[in-house]
Amino acid sequence: MANWDELAEALADYTVSCNTNERLRKMQRDWSRVLHFECSDSRDRFFMVVDRGEIVRTGEGHEGVPDIVVTTESETFCDMFWGDLNPVQKYLRGEIQVKGSQEDVMRLDAISYVIWPDV
Amino acid sequence: MAPTASSPVPGFVPDPDAKRAALEDFATFLNPQKVRVLRAAGLDLIEAERSGPWVFDLDGRRFLDCFTSAGSFNVGRRHPRVVRAAHEAIDRLDHGNFLLCSREKAALARKLAEITPPSLECTMFGTGGGEAVDFALKLARGATRRSRIVSTVNGYHGHTGFALSAAGREQYRHPFEPLMPGFTLVPFGDVAALEVLDDSVAAVILEPIQGEGGIVVPPPGYLAAVRRACDRVGALLILDEIQTGFGRTGRWWASEHFDVVPDVMTTAKSLGGSLVPISATIFTEELREFLIPNPFIHLSTFGGSDVACAVALEVIAVMEEEGLVENAATMGERLHAGLRQFAAAHPDVVKEVRGLGLMAGVEYGEDSMGPRMSFHLARHGVLAIYSGNQPAVMRLMPSLVVGEQEIDFLLEALEAAASDLLAGKGPEEVAPNRARRRPVRPAASALGQG
Fold this sequence. Notes:
The complex is a heterodimer. Helices cover 42% and strands 24% of the residues of chain A.
């Protein structure tokens, strides 16, 4: 189980990976969402605010009304944020649960693909 | 029959290498993310042999096709009579000059008038469903000289200009806005919502049963109420029978179940018999009056090509002579009886089953179960996709040539897939051929971006 410091570091690295990827920023420029994340194996919860493709805020706890809620184990979040797993495979195994539209589920997977085409 | 059995087709040689090459080219020259998602979902088929209700992946696996390109293969894949008619048509015809009159167009329009409700006598041809809907809406505006169009939430009518404007799903429309003005959405099945109709409304367009919306059968009396509301304000009723028509529900047209006759009906998909693109907008003689002074106001270079019309005529002949509409009703009863048992046995997986004839929907407990069941069904030899506008709902729309054996195969596969789902099975995870990216260093807090 990952502790909060690991999760925070993974989230910070993910933020940098997304925000410095110009191809992704252009692709996501019409995408503004509030995402909530919940660890199923710990009590950790955190959030992400995306404004026109840019991750403008992340933090511990929950902020705002979520468009998307992602639930999985803390280690899986770390793997996802560091590009060490294929999110859609985990989703199809039922190990990542996403509440939100199917388009947003595809978007989340597409973000991983654009940053890490080999996942 | 074992759900995972594969039966070789004479002359079919599986070629996994060719499949890999095709997927690579598809990813390179079409869309890599489409390949990635389909691969993860176990749906990265390259269709090779296609026969009746079955399709073979290029790697040799056999699937009962329950997606049928959203109901495009009602006579089955490559029906021998339709294939023969297509060969004969190509031997003597081509598209034809779209501006001229044509024997094949005339013959098919006459046949469509025969198999649709008596008041629908006139036809405009197109190449696909979106084009048929576009013309239906143009005709409504042109004939009534009114501008407003009312469509339904979660409705689906295609991706062309007018049709997309009527789409009941924001995600399809949003990137392309502004679309056509004057479109209003109302909840499907809600009679009270029809109060929005007034004398500015040219037409109401809806599917008799929502397909992409999740196989939603309207409540009793709803379509009749829509008809009355249209009549009250002088608006036209357009029924999109592109997925529901051509025998899919056990009647030629789904609207027959509800005793409602529209002013305009659209059909496409199965009209082409899985071989040619063709669609038709069928309407009343009264509405045709708009086209008398405007005979060239809507043109389509390939719409109702002579070859496609010849094929479509044979498709209708096959439907009639092989009793496929009646078979859809009979096999539909068997399917729905089995689905009800399946639902009763798996209340933790299935929320509801619904539909008419061979247009069935299984609503699972939550959204992710739609894609996950697609994956598991593919492993058990069934190609089935969830609804675009309602991912928790799986559409089961096999071709109308299925028999008891295929229906039972489908039901067995559903049982096996549900067991796999409950057992937590899924795509096998393959360790990537590279080092993990996770940094090997003590964790440090880095929160508080931006």
